Amino acid sequence: MANFTRIFINPHSDAHHSVESAYKHQSTYLRKVWNDDSYGLERLMRLFLCLAQFAFPILLIREIFGRFGGIPRKLAVEFYTLLKLLFPLVVLFSGLFRYPLIIVLIVYLLSETVLHILNLIFLSDIHSAAVSYRRSMLLLFVHYIEVVADFAVFYIGFNLLNEPLTWVSAFYFSMVVNTTVGFGDIHAKGTAGQLVVSAQLLIAIIFIILFIDYFSQKVNER
Length: 222
What we know:
The protein is mainly alpha-helical. The protein has two domains: 1-68; 80-222, Helix Hairpins (Orthogonal Bundle).
């Protein structure tokens, strides 16, 4: 409790320590990748993913709440993950997609999610193994729905489809794209719309790869 209170009572010293410690831990992962035996495109991807983590707040969240133990850290990460899901849903429902700053923030959070998924694929060897398979799959599903909501904001915010959208129809089309079903009742309008749909399809494929990888690992364990 005293450690938790100090975060708020003495924000300058503890905040500085948290940033320094979080960056130090991530630097350790970066050195591991730098010194491993990977090469070529794989090596470049692994180095990029390690460096990219410095740009996102998840490092600080894990460091601050990790002081209180593993469970508080995991709960903080789960809470942050849920916030990232709720934010685009609120934006869709409230019409905040009209504001450019909101769109920029959603792009930022979506970038963090995509890079996190790539981390699970390319950096699984340097991170600790998942404690719970069910928890990992649940968080992965939350990220999946978050991506659907994020792209729904893009479609309605930039008017990228062939007909006027409500927040429900934007979410519906985004879900159709993410599941690669493609009913054809709504479709992309113009080059910009086609590029955004293509980007979402690529992300959906990454999720499919990761789902299959997680499932195959579980089967092998049995």
